Task: inverse folding
């Protein structure tokens, strides 16, 4: 296994991620340890623990997150998609907080993103603009302008949820941990309306 897709109770985008990653991708249950020899770890979207308390708040305590923190500190690429980003924020691996959408409604629609940083394992060589779907109720990032200016990787062209400074995705200081609310794994087939998500996975050398 080269790419580990972590499954939490309530994950529902794990199969899409494995399909997008292709050969070499596999699942790791949240109670298990990460295998050796990985090239990257992906935390998929879904509703871990039913979003009890708030999205990602319980999943951050899953045993596997100790390994995720360890490999992240060692420089391994880690990608959090939607609920995965919420978990990374709750775990303190990304800055800020995730709040309910300012509309108070779950939003499911396609959005345009502008890439702000091409120096991450997931954005090397991607186009400047990307079209991907979102599907979330707690997608409004809240944080400082300093963090947004320094660490934003993706911004919404037309902000759908009230996220501060139009932030749709962030990186950590080192740049190996990236989280985004849109779903690249759902934008890997023209039949679904966009193949732009493939660019993020190709950046891993797939």
Result:
């Amino acid at each position: 296994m080269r790419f580990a897709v972590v499954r939490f109770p309530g994950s529902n985008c794990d199969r899409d991620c494995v399909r997008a990653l292709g050969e070499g991708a596999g699942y790791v249950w949240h109670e298990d340890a990460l295998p050796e020899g990985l090239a990257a770890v992906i935390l998929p979207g879904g509703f871990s623990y039913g979003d009890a308390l708030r999205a990602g708040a319980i999943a951050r305590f899953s045993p596997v997150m100790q390994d995720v923190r360890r490999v992240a500190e060692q420089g391994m690429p880690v990608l959090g998609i939607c609920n995965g980003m919420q978990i990374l924020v709750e775990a303190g691996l990304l800055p800020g907080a995730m709040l309910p959408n300012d509309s108070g409604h779950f939003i499911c629609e396609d959005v345009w993103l502008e890439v702000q940083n091409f120096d991450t394992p997931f954005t090397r060589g991607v186009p400047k603009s990307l079209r991907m779907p979102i599907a979330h109720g707690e997608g409004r990032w809240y944080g400082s302008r300093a963090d947004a200016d320094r660490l934003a990787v993706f911004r919404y062209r037309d902000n759908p949820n009230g996220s501060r400074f139009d932030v749709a995705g962030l990186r950590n200081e080192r740049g190996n941990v990236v989280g985004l609310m849109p779903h690249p794994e759902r934008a890997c087939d023209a039949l679904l309306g966009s193949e732009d998500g493939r660019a993020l996975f190709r950046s891993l050398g797939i």
Summary: The helical segments are 14-21, 64-73, 83-90, 145-151, 198-202. The chain has a mean pLDDT of 97. The radius of gyration is 15 Å.
